[in-house]
Amino acid sequence: MDFQLSEEEEAFRNEVRGFLDDNLPESHERTPDFLTNWSKQIRERRWVGFSWPKDVGGGGGSIMEQVILKDEMAQRKAPSLGSCFMGLAWVGPAIIQYGTEAQKQKYVPDILDGKYQWCTGYSEPDSGSDLASLKCKCERDGDDYVVNGQKIWTSIAMWSKMMILLVRTDQASESKHDGITCLLVPMDTKGIDVRPIKNMSGGEMFAEVFFDNVRVPVENRLGEEGEGWKVTISALASERSSIAEVHGLIRKIDEVKNLARGTIRAGRVMSEDPGIRRRIAQAETKIEAMRLNGMRFLTKQLKGEPLGSETSINKLHRADLEVGLGELALEILGSSATLMEGSEPTVDGGAWAKYSLNWPEVVIGGGTPNIQKNIISERMLGLPKD
Ligand SMILES: Cc1cc2nc3c(=O)[nH]c(=O)nc-3n(C[C@H](O)[C@H](O)[C@H](O)COP(=O)(O)OP(=O)(O)OC[C@H]3O[C@@H](n4cnc5c(N)ncnc54)[C@H](O)[C@@H]3O)c2cc1C
Fold first, then answer.
1. Domain containing 55: what range?
2. pTM of the predicted model, to two decimals?
């Protein structure tokens, strides 16, 4: 691992810092107009999808420059680079790797511009961890595929214009991994029925999606027929590597620290409580370990080695940390932690209670801890198969 920046990288960091000095106001001064203008400026600089190839609209930047850009932005709490989360995290990379020229031109610029949202139709009622057992049926009929079946837990399906969908095109394949195909599906196609699911914090951010004779043109297939598993594996590695980022956690621990500084219980400021201080220090140490682990992945990437199972390590740590930080915040708050949004008087509008109830998103979404542990033990430690 070499932490020294080259001259060019140092110059790029100064460019980003200069841009932030000139264009980023304090958080409370960020109006909707500022955000519109900000999105335009960072897109013009090609900082959205900065490491994607220039010919599809990316910045053609190196992986190291991408890291510098994200680090500087995170340290200054700048708005995110782009607004199409799934598009930027894994749909775009999958299209760049497996898409036809027409697909790249059609979808990638819109992802970079954040014109609309993508959702991910992988999980089914009986196929989550064992995703390759999926059954959603797809048959060829002329120039179309016809899809029948169901997906579940599809995040933001109700607000998405497009879905990256996994279907089974070969019902009789010898291996369950064969016979899976990946399709890019407009959500307004006839026969798609989206039914939101309420989660335990009261929000509706995912849905069941039903397919009843949904016709998808063959030109919307991503990769070859029967090769959907290969497309998915690379997309999931992108998901885990993006989930692994520590910037959000650093922000979160800062918020917990502020909460502790501003909360007085039994006459004591909670940030002076030795137990709370120890827990905060433990969390910060873990976050630093995650950051260094991230540097190891980065070193591999810089050497041109493919990212594989290693990303599961930080996925696992992040899940553990987010649950721990939620519990810590509730302990700091004491009995007022039980008040949800809308109750009087909540602390921070009930945001901490809501955060704590949202743990399934980071713990289960993208693969459960048990599955991450299986991946690490089998593929990295060489232990016997599950
Ligand atoms: C907030 C949220 C958002 C999501 N968003 C999406 C989305 O946008 N698109 C999408 O397709 N899916 C999404 N999911 C679904 C998610 O990927 C699945 O829930 C997850 O993969 C687990 O699958 P499952 O729910 O079927 O649980 P199961 O696979 O049935 O697992 C149940 C339990 O058994 C354990 N288990 C299963 N197999 C093994 C094994 N081999 N060894 C040891 N333990 C095992 C699991 O760890 C878990 O504890 C989302 C989930 C959540 C919670």
1. 7-82
2. 0.91
